[in-house]
Amino acid sequence: MAKLPIKLLPLLGIALLLTAIGFFMMRSGGEDPEELISEEVSPAEDFSSKNFEAIQLDPDKGVTWELKAEEAGGSLKEGIGRFKKFRIKLHAEDGLDFDLEGNSGEINRIKDEIIFSGDLKGKTSNGYMVYTEQLLLNDKEGTIKSDDTVTFVGPFFTMTGKGLFMDLNKETLELLKDINSTIDIESLNL
To answer: Is the pLDDT of residue 100 over 60?
Structure first.
């Protein structure tokens, strides 16, 4: 058996490594790794998950958001996802941020909508609170709507009305009808 000088061992190791890489590349047929991954995860499959997290960071698609839920499931093929016990942070590029938590929701990626429902509690980045049972986020437009009773709480007032329209980009919030207001005079510090 021939003896190799110790100085050549690293070169021999590199040559063996390159040979192994070449062998596996030839064996895979030169397929793109992304194509292999997409074949393994068929879009027709349903999914379910505990401690689910989803992020939409593309401002060209409208409002960016980060969703965390205790559990989630849905169909990738249909573009529908459902989640329970959630918390979501919405961010409009030059507008309001809005944090919301509640019992359940449904994402429809085809319509760019998310429906939130069940004991909803929201807070705007400028400190106002919103309470209701159901909200609809149009992801692309950056708008939030509701036909349910909504309570809006500020630093010295509480407003309750039926229906809501909120534009995160324009930083506006409207209660639509049957509005009752309560002003806390002591908080005004006149």
So the answer is: yes
Per the listing, tokens 């019992």 go with 103
Maximal CA-CA distance, the chain: 99
Work out the mean pLDDT of the chain and round it to a whole number: 80
For position 146, what pLDDT does the model report? 95
Torsion sign over Cα 93, 82, 68, 55: negative
Main-chain phi, psi angles of 158, to 5 degrees:
-135, 130
C-alpha angle 102-110-44 in degrees, rounded to nearest 5: 95
Q: What is the DSSP string of 1-65?
A: -PPPPGGGHHHHHHHHHHHHHHHHHHHHTT--HHHHHHHHS-TT-EEEEEEEEEEE--GGGSSEE
CB distance 127 to 155 below 8 Å: yes
Q: What mean pLDDT do residues 91-97 have?
A: 84
Measured CA to CA, the distance from residue 52 to residue 75 in angstroms comes to 15
Confidence of residue 110 (pLDDT cuts 50, 70, 90): confident
